[in-house]
Amino acid sequence: MKEETVMPLAVFALMIASFGIGTTEFVIMGLLPEVAADMSVTLTTAGLLISGYALGVVFGGPLFTAAATRMPRKNMLLILMGLFIIGNMLAAVAPAYWILMTGRIFAAICHGAFLGIGSVVAAAMVDQDKRSRAISLVFTGLTVANVFGAPLGTWIGQYFDWRATFWMITVIGVVSLVGLVALVPARPNEVPARLRTELAVFTRGQVWLALATAGLSIGALFAAFSYVSPLMTEVAGFDAGMLTPLLMLFGVGLVIGNLLGGRYADRAQVPTLLTAQALLAAVLVAFTLTAHIQVAAGATLALLGGAGFASVPGFMTRVIDKAAGAPTLASAMASSAANAGIAIGSYLAGLTINAGMGFTAPLWVGALMAVAAFLVTLASGALDRSRGARRDAPAPSTALAPEESR
């Protein structure tokens, strides 16, 4: 029996943790000058704190998950939140740059595994037709971090001290840890997974297609977003002081798109993904035209956030479905795939700018990646209807149950 009174509070605890994770990821971008000056390093060296975090997400999350597969999922979440707290405490007190980098990597390991495992836990606590909505609530914390967490952390770091920002995030981590302990069910009937079983799901073609969908969908968004500052200032003509409210507008789009994507993915998973990816491609193409008109550019930026994150609950649920019976490691890999997509999209977008194609060129890169995501999802959906796909991926309703029956 699912405890309907506990489930929303448990998902809320996961959402708060996600908010802290999102804040610590994004806030560093606004604090690089302060960190560089305090640590006596160049701005470029300080920028490696972003790259180091990304690598921690891509590689650290799956490695931790693989090492801890036999552990109950709640325990995994608690250890990860402990790493998050330690990482941000190290950042707050770091006397040297390498200690700050170590703290960032600790926090990144939490990011890479927590969102995947948290998605599995959230999906397990609700009925079959509410799983995508539960996952969207977990990711709501990540999107709200863009709207409030990162701007607030940047303001604290600039007005007081950048270390104060990481102390604030540490407090969020402690609150999250208490919430996870108190609210997330222990699920004593859950049998810890076996690493061999978790790895076996990667022999399924549909798992790889779902991971590709995640990477291409988010990569398409960030191919454009990585260079949104020069796009909005140099092309649209906004003053630099308008970037913060514009980015908050983008963040509002992320929140709305994520919640709508979760609601509709529960009704029709593949059609929702296809709609979100087609809409993202259309918005990116339209942005090449509206970028020259300030009001239209601002509105399109909000639509970009909405279309870009509308696919997240759907592809996370799809990864869990296609890794039926052993979804823990696969869901952590989804976060890695998304971050790999971000890295690839940003890199390709940078190549177009270096080639002198202008600041609207990354929008075309994103549109092409969104079309690729659409085609991959279309192919995966076609396989769902084939006899072979039914052998490759058991019915979604068994996605979490086998661990309880082994």
TrEMBL record:
Stored InterPro entries: MFS, MFS_dom, MFS_Efflux_Transporters, MFS_trans_sf
Localization per Swiss-Prot or TrEMBL: Cell membrane
Transmembrane segments: 9-32, 44-64, 76-99, 105-125, 137-160, 166-186, 207-228, 240-260, 272-289, 295-316, 328-349, 361-383
Topological relation to the membrane, as annotated: Multi-pass membrane protein
Keyword Transmembrane: yes
Superkingdom field: Bacteria
Domain Major facilitator superfamily (MFS) profile as annotated: residue spans: 10-385
Main location, first listed in the record: membrane
Keyword line: Cell membrane, Membrane, Transmembrane, Transmembrane helix
Region annotation (Disordered) ranges: 387-406
Entries under PANTHER family matching the protein: CHLORAMPHENICOL EFFLUX PUMP RV0191, PURINE EFFLUX PUMP PBUE
Name of this chain's protein: MFS transporter
Native species: Nocardiopsis rhodophaea
Record lineage: Bacteria, Bacillati, Actinomycetota, Actinomycetes, Streptosporangiales
